[in-house]
Amino acid sequence: MAQETGRVAIITGGNKGIGLETGLQLARQGVTVLLGARDLAKGEKAAQGLKKEGLDVRAIQLDVTDQASIAAAVGRVEREFGRLDILVNNAAVMVDGRPASPSTVPVSAWRETFETNVFGLVAVTQAFLPLLRKSAAGRIVNLSSILGSLAEHSDPASPIYHALVPAYDASKAAVNMFTVELAHELKDTKIKVNAAHPGWVKTDMGGAEAPMELTDGAKTSVWLATLPDDGPTGGYFHMMVHMRW
Predict the structure, then answer these.
(1) pLDDT tier, 100 (very low <50, low <70, confident <90, very high otherwise)
(2) What is the pTM of this model?
(3) d(Cα 32, Cα 4) in Å, to the nearest integer?
(4) What does DSSP assign to residue 201?
(5) What are phi and psi of 165, to 5 degrees?
(6) How far is CA 162 from CA 99, 100, 110, 119, 212, in A?
(7) Cα angle for residues 72, 78, 80 (degrees, 5° grid)
(8) Which pLDDT score is estimated for 242?
(9) What is the pLDDT of residue 3?
């Protein structure tokens, strides 16, 4: 096992969009970044693009819905680094279609959404937690969304009051709850657990009409991934501001 001194991060769904931009910004801060990708070839291509800047970015095969893939990724990180400092749970899907009605979204869409956005996130976090416990300052960042906020959806004055994407919204609300309860479990450790709303960003999921660029969309994740020892845990943030649950 080759122990390395710099911080080590793994990002699920790291080969494109906000995940890739998060990897770029972390690597520019000297972090060794592993871009998790279901398709390793796509991960390798993304990593090569960042390596041209002289950054320590590597691809790793990681399908959050495949337990064997998760176990193999954990094994590689343990062999090469002996610990993990930063886990960014970025991978997610949106299959509802927009707008959608809770009464008509097929159960199959709910299952597919939760398989990646919730069960996959929990599986990856549980699998990497032993390595995060070996870090001097472990950080877990769970990508959520304003669409997971019960307070916002319940408020007629909220900009998302009419933005119904039921399966996706519910999956992000579940991510928020997992974040709060895992932070509570780990409150007496050096690990901090927070949820990030990146904003409405120009990605495959966000669409071309989104007002935010990738550079800003990754900022909340990067901030939470690099919090100091006195930083928050168990919070739900957008651009360093706490959001309504």
Answers:
(1) confident
(2) 0.94
(3) 9
(4) B
(5) -130, 75
(6) 9, 10, 19, 27, 20
(7) 100
(8) 96
(9) 46
Are 161 and 153 in contact by the 8 Å Cβ rule? The answer is yes
Burial class (CB in 10 A: 0-12, 13-18, 19+), 232: middle
Confidence at residue 1, expressed as pLDDT on a 0 to 100 scale: 40
Tokens of 90: 């970025």
Report the alpha-carbon distance of residue 10 to residue 37 in Å, rounded: 10
Give me the active site residues, please.
168, 172
Per residue in 150-186, pLDDT (tens digit) is 999 999 999 999 999 999 999 999 999 999 999 999 9
Q: 62-99: buried (b, 16+ CB within 10 Å) or exposed (e) per residue?
A: bbbbeeebbeebbebbbebbebbbbbbbbbbbbbbeee
Which of 213, 205, 182, 207 is closest to 195 using CA atoms? Answer: 182
Contact status, residue 121 vs residue 173, Cβ threshold 8 Å: no
Give residue 168's identity as a one-letter amino acid code: Y
* Residue among 24, 18, 27, 46 at smallest CA distance from 213: 18
Q: How far is CA 116 from CA 67, 190, 227, 230, in A?
A: 12, 27, 26, 32
> Of residues 166 and 206, which shows the higher confidence score?
166
Number of helical (H) and strand (E) elements in the chain, helices listed first = 9, 8
3-state helix, strand and coil shares in percent for the chain, rounded to the nearest 5: 40, 15, 45
